[in-house]
Amino acid sequence: MLKRKRLHLFEFSDLPGWPNLFRTLATDYLMMVASLFRPFSPKMETIERAMDAVDTDRIVDLCSGAGGPWPHLAREFAAQRGKPIELSLTDRYPNPDGDEALEGIAGASYLEEPVDARRVPPSLEGMRTLFNGFHHFRPEEAKQILQDAVSSGQPIAVFEMLQRSWIYLAYMLLTPILVLISTPKIRPVRLARLFWTFVIPVIPLVLLWDCVVSVLRCYTTEELAAMTRSLEGPGYHWEMGTYWRHTLPVTYLVGYPQAAVASADVATPSLRETPSLRETHSWDSADQTPHR
What DSSP designation does 240 have? Predict the structure, then answer.
């Protein structure tokens, strides 16, 4: 683990003036990786548990970008629950082609109106999810995202396909090679993608920088736990852990109203019950004591 302090360096994808074409081509690659490795599938039951605890079938995805993992997770998750879900993708800068990724998925839509993850409109009730976007926010902003969920009484799940470790940092140095190998497999085939990858390699180099910076930016489980303990409002039940999915590390944090835990008699996960996890904790914000 990288013990040094988190570094919030810039990422090209965060720059306001960064061309939308380059942002889209980069996120297309990340979506392909998520679709290929399905890194979030092993812990979908934590989202299902939170939804059942507050009796909701709606998912409000934040910072969705070009679609995130939901285009390939939606059918899998609905089948797992045994009933349809309502899926709303949102972003502060909505992707104009976002609906294309949801084609054929019942109950799914991409909101045209900008949605700030730190201040979600009251009308967007439901299970909030945030995949690979939490590290883009500075600590105070990240805390605002969690605080807004708690203040609104909405469940929230944060998943990061990242880990602040020397091994994963070294792995990120292979990004340009992986981009060159993977690009011909990305659909639909776009001349712009081929040009800016193979002729002028803007996308491989930009992804190299952004991926390395993402590792330095991502939050450790200790930092996530500290955030939840500083939140104000009604008690919340939190579950947190890390695991590896194929060659990808995943860190996650899931929270929902503590009152719902009691009414639903939700079981606390343990390391013994989830052997694929390297580290698992759960706690209630009222007692502030993590349970392993």
Answer: E
The DSSP H or E segment spanning 24 is: helix 20-37
User: For residues 27, 28, 33 and 36, what is the CA-based torsion angle, rounded to 10 degrees?
Assistant: 150
Which tens digit of pLDDT belongs to each residue from 254-291? Answer: 999 986 655 555 444 332 233 334 455 555 555 555 55
Q: What separation in angstroms does the CA of 135 have from each of 63, 105, 153, 201, 202? A: 11, 28, 23, 25, 23
The pLDDT value recorded for residue 62 is 97
Q: Which positions ≥6 away from 264 have C-beta within 8 Å?
A: 52, 53
CA dihedral (133, 134, 139, 140) in degrees, to 10, reads 80
Q: What is the DSSP string of 171-209?
A: HHTTHHHHHHHHGGGSSS--HHHHIIIIIS-HHHHHHHH
In DSSP notation, 243-289 reads EEETTEEEEEEEEEEHHHHHHHTPPPP-TTT-TTEEEEEEEETTT--
